[in-house]
Amino acid sequence: MKESYKRVISGSIYALIFILSLYSNLTFALLTFSFGIICTYEFNKLLKQRGGKLYILFTVFYVFFILLENYFNSNEIQNSFFNDLKGSLVILTIFISIFLLRDLFISKDFPKFLSKKYYNFIFYISCAFIFIFLIGNLNGKYSPSIILGCFIIIWVNDSLAYIIGKKFGRQKLFYSISPKKTVEGFLGGLFFSCISASFVSTFINDSFTTQNWLFTAIIISVFGTLGDLIESKFKRELKVKDSGSILPGHGGMLDRLDSIIFATPYVYFYLKLI
After folding, report:
1. Beta strands in the chain (DSSP E)
2. I need a labelling partner for 256 at 20 to 30 A (CA). Which of 51, 154, 225, 231 fits?
3. CA–centroid distance for 117 within its chain
4. Residue 252 carries which DSSP code?
């Protein structure tokens, strides 16, 4: 089977499972947790380490924030301590991501990422799934249309960047890290992400203005591309092609979610601002 067919089939199944999980807050939380566990497994495998430390770290952080979020939402309680805690978490996560960006553009390898893998695992991977859940509960109640809108934009960005880059790409975006990525592909993904923002605003979620969704699309496209490059550099440093094989044509779950993993804290921060 051609690689493109594999990508379409496995990508469609993945998208369908995600959409079905939006049925309730519980199913959404369970799927987000499952994705996180799979990414933890792939991260463990990439680092060639055994044991359950990373699984415990992810589970503790995820369950702690999800239980508190559900408690305050179900009891309609506004808790300043928890709100401050979420604010501190997003700031710390963005702070760590800035160091990853520095290493992407300046360092020849990722020595700090590898030597401080626990800090990076918590604030780079684990927190991303917490923010995915929090975006779905952004207004103090479960609102699946918001997180669905964000995922539609990231799917459009990734798909169109791949298609346009493959057909029309000439100028390499970051050849030493990801030889197949092109400037044309990035710009195509950005353009169609902005187009999809109008669709999301009209048919998926109208609680934000079209301008708000447009800016969200720009954040997702730009930071999602950076997240893709960061994971590509990480894999190149470890001399592996894919993080796993759970999604034929895409690789592992980390390969499929690398864009949203990096972009999520920036999206959450912006959505909370507006």
Report:
1. 172-174, 178-182
2. 51
3. 18
4. S
Rounded Cα distance between 220 and 222, Å, is 6
* Distance (Å) of CA 82 to CA 11, 24, 79, 240: 36, 23, 6, 40
Q: How far apart are CA 258 and CA 228, in angstroms?
A: 5
Look at the alpha carbons of 82, 52, 258, 252 in this order and tell me if their dihedral is positive or negative: negative
Within 10 Å of residue 136's Cβ, how many Cβ atoms? 22
Q: Which of 140, 191, 147 is nearest to 165 (CA)?
A: 191
pTM: 0.92
- In single-letter form, the type of residue at position 48 comes to K
**pLDDT tens per residue, the chain (274 residues)?**
566 677 788 888 999 999 999 999 999 999 999 999 999 998 888 877 777 888 998 999 999 999 888 877 766 666 788 888 899 999 999 998 888 888 788 766 555 555 567 777 888 889 999 999 999 998 778 889 999 999 999 999 999 998 999 888 889 888 878 888 899 999 999 999 999 999 999 999 888 999 999 999 999 999 999 999 988 888 877 788 878 778 777 778 988 898 999 999 999 999 999 8
Question: What is the C-alpha separation between 17 and 13, in angstroms, rounded?
Answer: 6
Buried b (16+ CB within 10 A) or exposed e, 68-82: ebbebeeeeeeeeee
Beta-carbon count within 10 A of 54 CB: 22
Token pair recorded at residue 253: 């779950």
Residue 274 corresponds to which tokens in the numbers above? 């507006």
Type of residue at 79: N
